[in-house]
Design a protein that fits this description.
Largest sheet: 5 strands, antiparallel
CATH architecture: Roll
CATH class: Alpha Beta
Shape: globular
Structural class: mainly beta
Length: 146
């Protein structure tokens, strides 16, 4: 994850784009963007496709203070969350929410879906996390900041 990587997008199918939304970007979310949390409305539009629950392939660390933060500076366990496909406009809106690249940094990683398939996906990292370490890598309601 340390090197500069080219953006990853899924191209519309050869037979056209039946939904009319163009290229889709895989986005892994682990905090307040998940279903049931305060920022999920950013992912509830017609230009978003829920692919399922997933976890990061590599070990990272999840901290929770005022917000959930994932960092690659510590390697504790896989982070558990949800995988979506989002259009460019949705990704840009979430970049603004996450203050990318100043507060969180959108980074390409690999995630494992429940069926075992591995896909590249973006996630938001923060290399200056604060708060309590969540040792199992799962952000839940009732945890600090939720």
């Amino acid at each position: 994850m340390g090197k500069k990587e080219e953006p990853f997008i899924l191209k519309p199918p050869e037979n056209g784009d039946p939904r009319g939304i163009g290229p889709l970007f895989p986005l892994f979310v682990y905090g307040t963007l998940k279903r049931g949390f305060c920022n999920h409305h950013f992912l509830s539009g017609r230009n978003t496709v829920f692919l399922g629950r997933a976890r990061t392939q590599e070990n990272l660390a999840l901290f929770v203070g005022r917000f959930p933060y994932v960092t690659a500076r510590k390697r504790i366990c896989p982070i558990r969350g949800e995988l979506y496909l989002v259009d460019r406009n949705t990704l840009s809106r979430i970049d603004c929410l996450e203050e990318h690249p100043f507060w969180y940094r959108r980074t390409l990683t690999r995630v494992v879906l429940e069926d075992g398939s591995v896909l590249p996906a973006y996630l938001y990292l923060n290399d200056q996390p604060e708060g309590r370490l969540i040792k199992n890598g799962l952000y839940l309601k009732g945890v600090l900041g939720s």
